[in-house]
Each structure stands twice: as structure tokens, then as C-alpha cells.
């Protein structure tokens, strides 16, 4: 029997492996590691948009057309000069892996040996030949964007360079004292080969469907058929040579004659009849890029309108449709694609379809998102949490090794919500999770002072650990994401092990009740009249355990307590504990233990009062552009 034919190993796509930022926007210094497809999560102003902008400065082929490419506000804290007046440059370093063969051959002298096992370059100072003797050694291309204030030009300049090797430069060289001294320019043609595309979802309507440089339509023109070189020239000629000419309109001919006769007295005009004339346009190529717009007809109106008059959701769907076309033009897995918040103006099913498409068709997808529907499509190993403090940006991947893969699969939706939250309450089980959420809403409703803020409004997610023994293991897991975590569980039936105690120590607050079960807690701490209300409400419930009996007409306190205990235990995990909490109508009716826990969480996670909080606190960094169209639900079935 012949052995099966050997299958060729699939070609790995070109990807960004590492990004280092210095002095850019809100980041004084920071590093982000990318391991293929990456989902960037984090709070507002954490730096997610800054990361995408930094990648565009290095790799974006059209970014160089902007003048200036950077400005005063792009420098951290606005410092583009130090106290002595010396330039404080923006430095952005990117490491690319998996260069196509032809690209690697041509740029081999610009590449350096890299190993993920060793965590970086292998040719650092002091390295010996044996250091490259690792299985995963490969060639990496290091690039650097340098942006700075040029005092001589009194302007800001910037460009991307090969950051290796650094050449010796003589003192009389004009670039001797410049931040990019010794570096070789990384031109636009090389950038085009990288296939980097950056889509700012919120700011789509302004440019993406126009013909401005770097727009999606311009990208399609650039990647598409030949003939685009003469397109603008041909268009301008047609505008200037309309037949009949604009000046042949009778009313305008009369004006031309009057102007020619009057001006001829003072200005030496040509004696030709066309010494004056009206033309359709004096537009230049750049003018045309600005004014030419795509018109569309919706199925409802059947009347063509400029694309930006459609709803935001429809515009974003069109943008995504163009992206699929660009992916086809570039070839499968040939694009490094960065996108901000695909959930903007799109319903959940469309968010998921977009995420699936990007992960399947792009060489590398780098996405920022606040949507659990987007994060759910990513392998948790691809989720990177971004934090920023005092200008220092850091990134942390989820340590999936701390929890079994089966547990991660079973809890994908819960994990998606928890990863996006400011804080996480890990509850022992379903009963406790539902009970805490119900108590949080009831607390808000009965708090006459209006000071209590429920869990969801302070950004705290409640996570069901499914069992008491599972509570410890989730603490270290969420700790790797820099989440503020709280544990809520019953008194254990047997003492915690040393490793469990260590894991519980990772929680900001490890709250252990004095009861062996939530049912005992509710029976002991809910007033008897509240338990009675609960039993009366539960009696009409479709899932009420009829075999446990009902209250008598005038039940004693012990009868109420005993029946409540039986019902709660029998319907554990069914939401009956939450139903009992919902019967509380005053603050002093809430269980003391639960109220104490909620108060601790609230104090730890408190946000500024809405009465005093500046409106701009939650605005993500960016270029400030945005669309004002109302949100529109759309269906992408016909597009994808």
C-alpha cells in the first residue's frame, strides 16, 4: 500500500508580531505583542485606537499623503521639544514575520533572526552563533516610524524606515543630527506589499466610500485593472471639452461678449472669439477626489442619493462589502487588517458574521471591540487586554492554561462579557449569580437616597463558576486580565487546600458567607413576611414543586420558614432564590449578608457621579471625526 502523499505546509501570512510605541498620543511608552489574529479589549482611553493609528503610521501606504503626517497633538503630552529645545520624536517600531519569499530575498540584509521561543531577536549585543540554534528561528523585518518637529522647516515631518542595519553617517551629512540618522527609507511600494488596511468604523462615512487617497474605492482602483493611470486625466479633459460647450449657452454667450468688450479696454485680450469662455470646471485631480461621490438607491425609495445620506448601518455594510472585494483582489490571507469596533451600528448577527469573515479571509485581523458577540468568535488566546497608566501602555493575553479548555468552551458567552467588564464577581453557582443580580436591582429600587449604583452600571459582570470548588481557579485567570475581581461563595464543607487559598488570595475581595448554602442565607436573613410574599408568588409559578405543599390560610412563622426552605432547596438554580429577593420592598428587608457584599463591591468600583462627571471622560482617542446618522439595523445576508 502506497503511503499517503505528503501535504505541503500552508504558507503563513505576513503578520505584525510586535509593536513598540514611544511618545505617541496618550502613550509615553508601551509594547504590544501580537500572536496572529488579535482582539484588543480594554476600557475607554486605554489606548486601543492609538495602537491602530500607530500601525497605520508605520505600514499605511496612503498615510504619507497627509500633510503634516503628524501634528502637535500626536506627541505625548504635546511635548515635541524638550526643555533645551531638542526634538522629542515619535518612535513606533514594528516587527513583521513570515515575509513572502520574494520579499525576504530582496530585503534579506534588512532582516534579523527572530525566535518566539527566545522572545525576540537573536543577534543582540553579546550574542554568539549558538544562540540561533533554535527550532523556530526565522527572519523578521524590523521597521520604525520616526515623526518629529523640524525646526528648520518649522513643520512636522515623519516617515517609515528600515530599522536595521543602522549605517554610519558622516558629520557633514544633512541627516547627521536627525532622529532617523543612519536609517534607510521604507517606501510606499514596500508598504503596498505589506497589504495593511485600517478601517475606523466610527469615521467610515467621511472617506471610505469616496475616491480620496487611501479610501476603499481608491484601494480597489489601485489593486484592480490597468487603465487607472489615465483615469483622472481623461475625466478632466471631458469636463473641459463638453459638447456643446458651457459657453455656447445663449445667455452665457451674451455675458461673454459684454465681458470681452469691457475688459478689452483695459487688458490686452486675445482677438479670438474665445478670448473669454465658460467651462464646466477648473477642478484638479485632488479636487475630483474630494467631490466625486458614490450615489446609491435603496430598495425603499428607488431614488439615488449620496452614500452618506444612508443610515450608518447601511454605510458600514457597504464598506464591509468593499472589504470583501479588496480581500479577493489581494488574494486569500494577504491582508493585515485593523478595524475599530465592528459593532457600531450593526446588529449582533452581523457583528458575528463580520468577525467570522475577517478571521477566515484576512492574513491577520487586529480588531478593537466592546462587543461580546465579536469576542465570542475569537479564540481566547487571541484576546489581549490593553491598559494604560501614567502614559505606560501594557498588554496582557489571557492565560488559558489556568483553566481547562472544556471550561473555557462552556463559558464563552460569560467570558466574553467578563473580559469586557471593569470588574468581575465570581459567584459560586447559578443560584448565587441570579440572586446577586436580583439583589443589585432591588437595592437600587428601594434605596431612597439614590446613592447605590447597580452592578451593571459600574461595569461589573457576574460570572457563574458552576460550583464552589471552581471559585478559586477563576481568580488567577481574571487576574491576568487586570480585572478587579470579587468572589462570593458559601462556607465550604471542608477546608480549602493550600493551593485553593492561594488562588482565592488573588481576589480583591474574597467574600465567604456564614451559611452553608444560599437557601439557608435567605431563610435566615429575609424577614418572615418577605418569605411569605415569596411563597405566595411562587405558588402561581409553572415550576412550583406542588409536592412540597402550600401555605395554610394563617401560617405560623415556622411554617413559612420551613416551606420556604423546602421550595428553595428543591428549585435550586431555577431562579427561585432571585424571586425571593425580588419580594423585598424596603432596604431593611434585603439580606444583610448580600447587602454588605454589594456595598463592598460598590465602594471598590465606584464611578464619578453623573452630575459632576465631564462628558468627555468616556471618549476614545481618535481623530475626532464621526458620523451623525442614526443607528440602522441591517442584514448582510445578501452581501456576504
From TrEMBL:
Top-rank taxon, per record: Bacteria
Region (Disordered): 606-640
InterPro entries hit by this protein: AAA_GajA/Old/RecF-like, Bact_Antivir_Def_Nuclease, P-loop_NTPase
Gene Ontology terms for molecular function: ATP binding; ATP hydrolysis activity
Record domain Endonuclease GajA/Old nuclease/RecF-like AAA: where: 17-96, 289-375
Acidic residues: bias regions: 612-640
Official protein name in the record: AAA family ATPase
UniProt organism field: Aliiroseovarius halocynthiae
Amino acid at each position: 500500500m502506497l503511503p499517503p502523499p505528503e501535504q505541503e505546509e500552508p504558507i503563513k501570512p505576513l503578520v505584525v508580531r510586535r509593536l513598540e510605541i514611544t511618545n505617541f498620543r496618550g502613550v509615553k511608552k508601551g509594547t504590544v505583542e501580537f500572536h496572529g489574529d488579535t482582539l484588543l479589549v480594554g476600557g475607554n482611553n486605554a489606548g486601543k485606537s492609538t495602537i491602530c493609528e500607530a500601525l497605520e503610521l508605520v505600514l499605511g501606504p496612503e498615510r504619507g499623503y497627509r500633510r503634516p503626517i503628524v501634528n502637535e497633538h500626536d506627541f505625548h503630552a504635546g511635548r515635541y521639544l524638550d526643555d533645551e529645545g531638542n526634538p522629542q520624536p515619535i518612535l513606533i517600531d514594528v516587527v513583521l514575520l513570515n515575509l513572502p519569499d520574494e520579499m525576504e530575498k530582496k530585503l534579506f540584509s534588512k532582516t534579523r533572526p527572530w525566535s518566539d521561543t527566545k522572545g525576540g531577536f537573536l543577534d543582540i549585543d553579546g550574542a554568539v552563533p549558538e544562540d540561533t540554534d533554535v527550532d523556530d528561528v526565522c527572519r523578521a523585518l524590523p521597521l520604525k516610524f520616526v515623526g518629529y518637529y523640524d525646526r528648520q522647516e518649522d513643520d512636522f515631518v515623519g516617515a517609515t524606515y528600515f530599522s536595521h542595519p543602522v549605517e554610519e553617517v558622516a558629520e557633514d551629512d544633512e541627516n547627521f543630527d536627525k532622529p532617523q540618522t543612519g536609517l534607510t527609507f521604507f517606501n510606499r511600494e514596500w508598504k503596498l506589499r505589506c497589504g495593511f488596511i485600517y478601517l475606523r468604523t466610527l469615521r467610515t462615512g467621511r472617506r471610505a466610500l469616496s475616491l480620496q487617497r487611501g479610501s476603499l474605492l481608491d484601494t480597489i482602483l489601485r489593486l484592480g485593472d490597468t487603465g487607472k493611470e489615465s483615469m483622472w486625466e481623461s475625466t478632466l479633459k471631458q469636463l473641459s471639452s463638453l459638447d456643446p460647450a458651457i459657453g455656447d449657452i445663449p445667455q452665457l454667450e451674451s455675458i461673454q461678449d459684454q465681458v470681452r468688450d469691457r475688459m478689452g479696454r483695459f487688458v490686452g485680450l486675445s482677438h479670438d472669439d474665445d478670448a473669454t469662455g465658460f467651462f464646466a470646471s477648473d477642478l484638479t485631480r485632488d479636487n475630483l477626489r474630494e467631490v466625486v461621490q458614490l450615489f446609491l438607491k435603496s430598495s425603499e425609495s428607488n431614488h439615488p442619493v449620496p452614500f452618506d445620506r444612508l443610515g450608518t448601518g447601511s454605510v458600514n455594510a457597504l464598506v464591509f462589502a468593499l472589504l470583501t472585494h479588496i480581500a479577493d483582489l489581494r488574494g486569500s490571507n494577504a491582508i493585515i487588517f485593523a478595524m475599530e469596533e465592528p459593532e457600531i451600528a450593526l446588529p449582533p448577527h452581523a457583528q458575528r458574521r463580520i468577525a467570522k469573515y475577517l478571521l477566515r479571509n484576512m492574513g491577520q485581523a487586529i480588531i478593537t471591540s466592546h462587543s461580546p458577540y465579536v469576542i465570542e468568535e475569537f479564540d481566547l488566546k487571541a484576546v489581549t487586554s490593553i491598559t494604560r497608566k501614567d502614559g505606560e501602555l501594557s498588554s496582557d493575553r489571557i492565560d488559558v492554561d489556568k483553566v481547562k479548555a472544556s471550561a473555557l468552551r462552556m463559558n464563552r458567552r460569560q467570558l466574553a462579557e467578563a473580559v469586557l467588564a471593569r470588574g468581575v464577581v465570581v459567584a459560586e453557582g447559578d443560584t448565587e449569580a441570579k440572586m446577586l443580580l436580583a439583589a443589585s436591582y432591588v437595592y437600587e429600587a428601594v434605596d431612597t437616597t439614590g446613592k447605590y449604583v447597580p452592578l451593571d452600571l459600574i461595569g461589573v459582570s457576574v460570572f457563574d463558576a458552576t460550583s464552589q470548588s471552581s471559585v478559586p481557579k477563576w481568580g488567577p485567570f481574571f487576574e491576568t486580565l487586570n480585572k478587579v475581581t470579587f468572589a462570593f461563595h458559601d462556607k465550604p464543607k471542608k477546608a480549602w487546600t493550600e493551593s485553593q487559598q492561594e488562588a482565592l488570595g488573588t481576589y480583591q475581595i474574597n467574600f465567604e458567607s456564614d451559611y452553608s448554602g444560599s437557601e439557608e442565607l435567605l431563610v435566615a436573613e429575609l424577614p418572615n413576611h418577605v418569605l411569605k410574599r415569596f411563597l405566595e408568588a411562587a405558588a402561581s409559578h409553572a415550576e412550583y414543586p406542588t409536592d412540597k405543599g402550600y401555605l395554610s390560610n394563617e401560617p405560623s412563622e415556622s411554617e413559612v420558614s420551613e416551606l420556604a426552605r423546602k421550595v428553595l432547596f428543591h428549585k435550586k438554580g431555577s431562579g427561585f432564590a432571585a424571586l425571593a429577593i425580588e419580594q423585598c420592598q424596603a432596604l431593611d428587608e434585603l439580606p444583610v449578608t448580600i447587602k454588605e457584599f454589594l456595598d463592598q463591591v460598590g465602594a471598590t468600583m465606584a464611578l464619578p457621579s453623573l452630575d459632576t462627571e465631564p462628558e468627555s471622560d468616556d471618549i476614545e482617542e481618535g481623530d475626532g471625526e464621526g458620523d451623525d446618522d442614526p443607528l440602522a439595523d441591517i442584514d448582510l445576508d445578501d452581501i456576504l
